[in-house]
Amino acid sequence: MTPFLQLILVLAIILFSAKLAGFLSTKLRQPAVLGELLVGLLLGPTLIDLTHMAVVTDTHLGEVVSELGELGVLVLMFLAGLELEMRDLTRSGKVSAFSGILGVLVPVGMGLLVGEIAGMDFSHAMFLGLTLGATSVSISAQTLMEMKMLRSRVGLGLLGAAVFDDILVILLLSGYLAIETGGSGLQLIIVLGKMIIFLLLSVAFGLWILPAITRVISRLPISQGVLTLAIIILLVYGLAAELVGGMAAITGTFLAGMMFGRTPEKGKIEEGLRALAYAFFVPIFFVNIGLSVDLHAINLTVLWLFLGISAVAILGKIIGAGVGARIGGFTWRESLQMGIGMVSRGEVGLIVAKVGLDQGLLNNNIFSAIVGMVLVTTLVTPPMLRASFSKSQPHPTKPVIMETKEPESMSDQEAV
Q1: CA distance 142 to 282
Q2: What distance in Å separates the CA atoms of residue 310 and residue 391, rounded to the nearest whole number?
């Protein structure tokens, strides 16, 4: 078969498997995303190794699938931002700040302690801690959307905390790399300056220029012009977040979604992009997480390290982000939900770990243990989050931050 035929074969298997697994997961009263993650693990090198089957000769096929999956997480976070309004997110600023900051510092400190106990030198132990500080809320955002809780106090606080988490992790990572490479404090100031510039420019463009461009495009005789504009802007915001702000691309696309949420064309954009996302890109993203993990790489020599950092990764986020949310004014139940929502490391944890491996600040054994930790935290987050909301009411007596009569636009069937 030609490389193109191999690609469409693999994509057909991924999409069918993802939807089937998501359906079975919902039947077991679990989030659909859990089934997609697990089937990805089964299709990956741990068992089937889909992208290296006998009929697959294209050595770049795995990279193509991975890049399609990365587009999926960008679209997912854009949709999460599209459902929110900036004023509602800013109202949860206190909770988000405390939860995001403590949700980084506590796991980093605990990871450093685990590394020291395991006999690592300080540089390896410190970078292990930095890896545990990262968070990827894409898994939690998807789970909350399935449960129709993204607009709750916890959902808004979680998304805001993820922004603080992203900024702080990048600052700590940049600062530590500057120290290790003999750099100066000026580098850290430059990194912070780039973040501020990106945030100011992206918000200014979204508030004052984007609405006018959207109105003009909506009047032109262009097929799906507004939807195409939304896709272009989400890609540009993701690119700018990485290149200008030095932040994760998902932070940029989340901001892009919030900007489009202010426009009258929000409903049209959401309808078109949601269909495209959940029919194609998002399932590939969740399955690809499992495809990228090989459990055989976790040998017995790193088993105890893997178990230790996995436990610390889960407890560190629950304690750190949870205590931060409590200080910010959440109830104990809401604080627990916030902590659980921050547990998943996802693609962000892998990116930070890869930086450490490339810089010689992590060895292959530690890196393998971290990969296993990323998988564990990603898998346990959806069921833990659903369980924490299982006895929660849709806040009949406790008003959510966002008051709206508009029903959630995402049904459980769409989530599957």
Answers
A1: 10
A2: 27
Q: Domain tally for the chain? A: 1
d(CA 163, CA 167): 6
Find tokens 């449960």 and name the residue.
Answer: 147
> Does residue 248 contact residue 197 with C-beta atoms inside 8 Å?
no
- Secondary element (H or E) of residue 276: helix 266-276
What is the H or E stretch that residue 333 is in? helix 332-341
| In a domain? residue 10 | no
For the segment 156-192, what is each residue's pLDDT rounded down to a tens digit?
Answer: 999 999 889 988 988 888 888 877 766 666 777 888 8
Domain that holds residue 316: 69-145+152-287+300-395
Dihedral, CA of residue 410, residue 98, residue 330 and residue 332, to nearest 10: 100
Using the Cα atoms of residue 72, residue 73, residue 77 and residue 80 in order, give the sign of their dihedral. Answer: positive
Per-residue pLDDT of 295-337, as tens digits, reads 777 777 788 899 999 999 999 999 999 999 999 999 999 999 9
Report the b/e string of 196-215 with b at 16+ CB within 10 A: eebbeebeebbeeebbeebe
Task: Please name which of 120, 133, 180 lies closest in space to residue 362, comparing C-alpha atoms.
Answer: 120
3 is a domain residue: no
In a domain, 90, yes or no: yes
Which of these, 406, 401, 408, 416, lies nearest to 94 by C-alpha position?
401
* Spatial separation of the C-alpha atoms in residues 306 and 301, rounded to whole Å: 10
Per DSSP, the residues of 352-405 read HHHHHHHTTSS-HHHHHHHHHHHHHHHHHHHHHHHHHHTT----SSS--SS---
64 by Cβ neighbours in 10 Å (0-12 / 13-18 / 19+) ranks as middle
Angle at 359 between CA 367 and CA 287, to 5 degrees: 40
Asked if residue 211 belongs to a domain, the reply is: yes
